[in-house]
Design goal:
Length: 181
């Protein structure tokens, strides 16, 4: 005798159809949302992959004589919705030092944030606001200087033997400790 399987009950068919619709609906929401999140986070991922360093100058632009030269620092500013390239965030003095390395000093005076000047006649840095003076390595020269600490050094890296990259940071003014802001 021929045997026919019993068709599922209508309730069970409805349940399976609803479950399938829920899964498909879920996939259509989750995949675009995940893609959107990846796009949103992409600049942040690229920024962190760089370790926060920014290209500042070609090594050829830094005097071989060892005299410091000032360069603006431009960086990409990223917020939740926008990625704005080449935003000025500060400036540094770059100076060639022994071993082919490059020293970077933040130009902001640690006393109150005025930009210091390099004085080639005296071979040191001078702050025009309250007369702090600093040696080439950033140390405070005159004990009467109101600056509470040396000029802020920054990590540098020479890439491909030609490009100077700097991990640029600003630091809190008016305190002895070097506190990033
Ligand atoms: S801001 Fe430089 S000495 Fe005051």
């Amino acid at each position: 005798m021929e045997h026919h399987p019993t068709p599922p009950a209508p309730d069970r068919r409805n349940f399976l159809a609803k479950a399938a619709a829920t899964v498909i609906g879920g996939i259509t929401v989750v995949i675009p949302a995940a893609s959107g999140l990846l796009v949103l986070l992409d600049p942040l991922r690229r920024k962190s992959a760089d370790g926060g360093a920014v290209f500042v100058a070609n090594l050829a632009a830094v005097p071989e004589s060892g005299e410091p030269r000032k360069f603006p620092v431009l960086a990409t500013r990223v917020d939740a919705w926008n990625r704005t390239p080449d935003v000025p965030v500060g400036a540094v003095y770059l100076q060639r030092v022994a071993g082919g390395a490059v020293r970077a000093l933040n130009v902001a005076c640690p006393h109150a944030g005025c930009f210091v000047d390099f004085k080639s006649a005296r071979n040191n840095y001078h702050c025009p606001c309250h007369n702090s003076s600093f040696a080439l390595d950033g140390k405070v020269l005159d004990p009467k200087s109101p600056s509470p600490r040396p000029l802020d050094t920054l990590e540098t890296e020479v890439r491909n033997g030609t490009e100077v990259w700097v991990k640029f940071r600003n630091f809190r003014a008016g305190v002895h400790e070097k506190i990033p802001v």
